[in-house]
Amino acid sequence: MIKKFARFMKPYKKEFILAIACIILESSFEVFLPFMQNILLTYGIHSEDNITYTMDINYVLMIGGIMIGISLLAFFLGVFGARFSAISCRGFGYEIRKEEYKKIQEYSFKNLDEFRASSLITRLTNDVQILSDTLCTSLRPALRAPFMLIFSLTFALIISPTLSAVFFVALVFLGVTIFSIVHVVKPRFLKIQKLLDNINRVTQESIIAIKTIKAYYKKDFEIEKFEKANKELTGVARKTLSINAFAMPIGQVANYGTMIAIIYFGGILYMQPGHAIALNDIQTFLTYVLQLLSTIMMLSNVLMAINRSTASFYRINEVIDARSEIIDKSDSKFSIKDGSLSFKNVYFKYKADAKEYVLKDINFSIKNGEFVGIIGQTGSAKSTLISLIDRFYEASEGEILISNNDIKDYSLHELREGISISFQSPLLFKGTVLENLKWGNKDATMEEIIKACKIAECYDFITKQLSNGFDTMISQGGTSVSGGQRQRLCIARAIIKNPKILILDDSFSALDKITEAKVKENLKRDLPEMTKIVISQKISAIKDADKIIVLDNGTITNIGKHDELLKTDEIYKDIDSLQQIGGAQNA
After folding, report:
1. What is the pTM of this model?
2. Rounded Cα distance, 169 and 163, in Å
3. How far apart are CA 546 and CA 562, in angstroms?
4. Do residues 470 and 514 lie in contact, with contact meaning Cβ atoms separated by under 8 Å?
5. CB within 8 A of 104, min separation 6: which ones?
6. What crossing angle do the helices spanning 279-321 and 247-270 adopt, rounded to 10°?
7. CA distance linking residue 280 with residue 35, whole number of Å
8. Tens digit of pLDDT for each residue in 4-55?
9. Cα(22)–Cα(88) distance, rounded to whole angstroms?
């Protein structure tokens, strides 16, 4: 898995190598300084009787100058190392985010059903940030620790093999303790990220549904729900970090305990006849061991950070490794020549192991340029059916043909360029009206845009009701315009794409009968060569269609014109009767 993630560092390979080189050289100089200090004390200051001391000023200045030079070199290496590390590590995070986002854009609807939107957002932001931060903060101590361990231990053994035993005891103590802490907290960090997904989901739902919450005065209920999620996350995080925090005091105990032990046993050795160890050797040894223990403590923090990032590591990998069942024939030479469409023995279920099919034995044909209506009660799988045309989902069985070619034989780009959909929940993006309309076709001329707006009956309200016309800013989601205006803008955007097949999924639901009738008339008159499929629960939206497909519980019960279906299809007749009664009562 590390090899898989290493590819994200390739664009910053040069900076990463330079960062490693700077850190290793800086560590080398830092390790060498106490050794130079020992030389300075040993040969720069002399004493024949341990009472009277003489100083070789030239030797002290020479060694002192070398030590200052080494310190300055270490300083500049540290600065450049930090710079190169920041460039490479932040670039690493940038590349992962880019790859994740690109992967999400390639997902089928089935993939998006498997990952919650809140979880994908967390994995794209928080998890990547944790991984990037871990690499940034851990690179220096992770490189320094083994390097300083080897050299400091070597110098310590040269100075006093006997005193080195103290270090080994401290090392074992620290190693066992840190390993135990890491083992305990590792699964807890994964749980924290999952709970963070949950709190993001609750927050996202409450913000999206804020109008409904206020309308039902459910703020207390939502606050309680958020409080529960927040408390659960805080509780697990508190326990995890409390266990994690033991590492620091344990490290301090090891440091001070080692200092006392070295001074104690060093003093015993010094007081032996003939001085088994010199005082300056004890001081240098102490410097090396404390430097080493400090590095090990930094390494323990690295292990803790890596431990936490492992959860993010696997979560990001799940997103990148997820495979879409939609296979794109990107090199296909097939092109959509017209809007003729056929379903042949099509079956569909959301999960392969599901017992029941959502769509069963779907068979129908649509000629190029026809105006076709699809109607059925709620839950009859109308939207699911049209999702198969654009390959948002893959049909479980059967064939779907456009221009007499299986849709699987087209590249996804060609297929989706030939189809335009205005979805059941109309969505506009933050930006101007013109920017939203051009989202359908960025190269559309103003003449084409005006024509589409007139077909969708939104030209007048854009030019007369909006303060800045086509340059009026639209809020995120399109909340600054009414539902009916939003639907008409989305229809216009779909038309501007100039597709072979135009699909309107319940896109007339917020329109009054007069506007609805005008839009339908415009579509039939001005777009005769474009196949138009209208999904609706309102018979008024489809009654004058060339053919109407009636769906019930995932199966087609009948296909025909309005008058025919009133005589031959009980479901259609019932829907019409209920709507006639409802219309009369509303009138």
Report:
1. 0.70
2. 11
3. 9
4. no
5. 120, 124, 319
6. 160
7. 11
8. 778 888 899 999 999 989 888 887 787 777 777 767 776 776 655 555 667 7
9. 14
CA distances from 123 to 194, 202, 418 (A): 10, 16, 33
Alpha-carbon span 504 to 491, nearest angstrom:
7
Q: Can you tell me the distance from the alpha carbon of 386 to that of 504, in angstroms, rounded to the nearest whole number? A: 10
Sign of CA dihedral 107, 112, 117, 118: negative
Give the Cα separation of 21 and 499 in Å (integer): 57
Question: What average pLDDT score do residues 304-325 get?
Answer: 80
Residue that the structure tokens 């229809």 belong to: 491
Residue (of 183, 148, 176, 153) closest to 31 by Cα position:
148
Helix (H, G, I), strand (E, B) or coil at 396: coil
201's tokens = 């989901």
* pLDDT (tens digit per residue) in 537-559: 889 889 999 999 999 999 999 99
* Pairs from 321-325 (Cβ < 8 Å, separation ≥ 24): 322/103, 322/107, 322/111, 322/114, 322/115, 324/106, 324/107, 324/108, 324/110, 324/111, 325/108, 325/110, 325/394
Counting Cβ atoms within 10 Å, is residue 300 exposed (0-12), middle (13-18) or buried (19+)? buried
Average the pLDDT over 141-169 and give the result: 74
Most confident of 238-247, 260-269, 484-493: 484-493
Q: Which amino acid is at 524?
A: K
Residue with tokens 């939206």: 541
Neighbours of 295 (CB within 10 A): 21
Q: Average the pLDDT over each of 28-32, 355-359, 503-507 and give the range with the smallest value.
A: 28-32
Look up residue 342 and give its amino acid. S
Phi, psi (degrees; rounded to nearest 5) at 377: -70, 165
Mean pLDDT, all residues of the chain:
83
Strands 53-55 and 473-474: unpaired
